[in-house]
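Hi P.,

Sorry for the delay on this. The queue was packed all week, but I finally got your sequence through. Input first:
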Amino acid sequence: MSVKLGIAPIAWSNDDMPELGGDTPLEQCLLEASQAGFRGIESGGKFPKTSGELIPKLNKYKLNLCSGWYGANLRINSIDEEKLAIADQLKLFKECNAPCIVFAEIYGSIQTDPNIKLSKRPKMDLEESKIYYKKISEIGKFLEDQEMPLAYHHHMGTCIESEEDTRRLLENTDSSVKLTLDTGHMLFAKGDSLKFYKDFKERIIHIHCKDMRKNILEKSLRNDYSFRQAFLEGAFTVPGDGCIDYKPLFDLLKENDYSGWLVVEAEQDPAIANPLEYAKIGFNYLHKTLKIANLEISNN
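Then the structure:
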């Protein structure tokens, strides 16, 4: 079995804050992702919305579409409304042979609001949770039937943020609801990625390798920063530049024959953290650490 290395475009352009890399052309992002050594990239706001336009761009830089974010409003939408909302992205991802959709609930999210502290993030009560689990199970089955798995992303500032939230989600949904394990978000929410992987390895099909700078992480938690303030102060970084040791996780991936994507992702200001430079740091660290863990890296 082998793993594949991808990267998210958020290091070059931040869709939630267009002032961060807003003038960076997509071609620069694709070129530099390829130059850094990656074979996959997740989608972003600047990406073409049709496969006829996107595939030639990816092929030019020898990149694959290795998933991408979908912000759902399933807490308030009906199943049919959510199916309609996701239809175009589903079509694009199928035509581009993406492995999954990174699905996150954004209704009520505070992740883009600079004035709301993380402690004020939305939460679902027991009754709403039961309804939500049933609805997301239906969406999961729908996407599974479309051969485009739902890989749920636990995310700071949303209603599914903590290890407990994420555990409860998987325990109360159909097996078609898979997971994107994000090491940075799990750590920020005071969770344990290793324990979580051991408990839910069969549901984890996509991994975001997001690292954190320990001093800023602790400051953000101590002062109850907003999500935006935390990342603008530099809480997030790429593997190899933060406090997470990925070797234990990679040992578990080896032991359990994980063969999906490992995606480097770190919200940073590109004017401060040069995207190509940090992409290389992340790639080189993952490449070195995967070799130590005897995990083969696919070049396709």
